[in-house]
Amino acid sequence: MPRRYLDRRAEAEIEAMLAAEQQAATEGAAERPADQRQSSGATKRAGSGRRAAGDWHGLVEQRIQEGMEQGLFDNLRGAGQPLNLDEDRFVPDDMKMAFRMLRSSGLAPLWVDMNKEIREDIARMHRFRAHVHSQWTRISSIEREHRRDEYVQRVKEINS
Predict the structure, then answer these.
(1) SS3 at position 51
(2) Does residue 29 fall inside a structural domain?
(3) What are phi and psi of 44, to 5 degrees?
(4) CB 3.0–4.6 Å: which of 16, 112, 118, 140 could bond 108 by disulfide?
């Protein structure tokens, strides 16, 4: 489990648990006869000091179970909240993680923000035009010309 998902207290407890187990394994290896030490090498790759892939799964599962028993996962942020399992059907597979991270941070991709701004500008211009249209008969011709120029200028700014 990546460390960033664990709080500092849980991280410290897990490190202490790993250190205690390593110390127990070191002491146990020193106490065993030489022939037993060699036979236990089946769980490790020959001469490399590494565990086989299947052994890691069991070790990780054991650590998770021990952590659950000790209550290390009880006070995690977001506990009890539903998972967001929304499927991003229209997002390419290689971009899904990035989009999910942006969304969880309250952000959006640039093109989405730009589209939102464009739609807001268009709505603002529709409101401006409706407001001017409602006053059109009550304003002077000079004011009409001024409002028309203002409208044209705003449209140019949006389109540039």
Answers:
(1) strand
(2) yes
(3) -115, 160
(4) 112
Phi and psi torsions of 51, nearest 5°: -85, 155
Write down the residue that tokens 């730009």 correspond to: 114
Q: Does position 3 have pLDDT exceeding 60, yes or no?
A: no
pLDDT in tens, 41-70: 444 444 455 666 667 778 888 888 998 899
* Average pLDDT score, the chain: 77
Q: What angle do CA 34, 36, 41 make, to 5 degrees?
A: 100
| Of 51, 70, 89, the domain-final residue | 70
Task: Output the pLDDT for position 119.
Answer: 92
Residue range(s) defining the domain that contains residue 58:
3-70
Tell me the whole-structure pTM to 2 decimals. 0.38
Q: Measure the CA–CA gap between 22 and 16, rounded to whole angstroms.
A: 10
> Which residue, 70, 89, 119, sits at the end of a domain?
70
Contact criterion met (CB below 8 Å) for 90 and 109: no
Q: How far is CA 35 from the centre of its chain?
A: 49
- Yes or no: say if 59 and 10 are a contact pair by the CB < 8 Å rule: no
User: Could you give the number of structural domains in the chain?
Assistant: 2
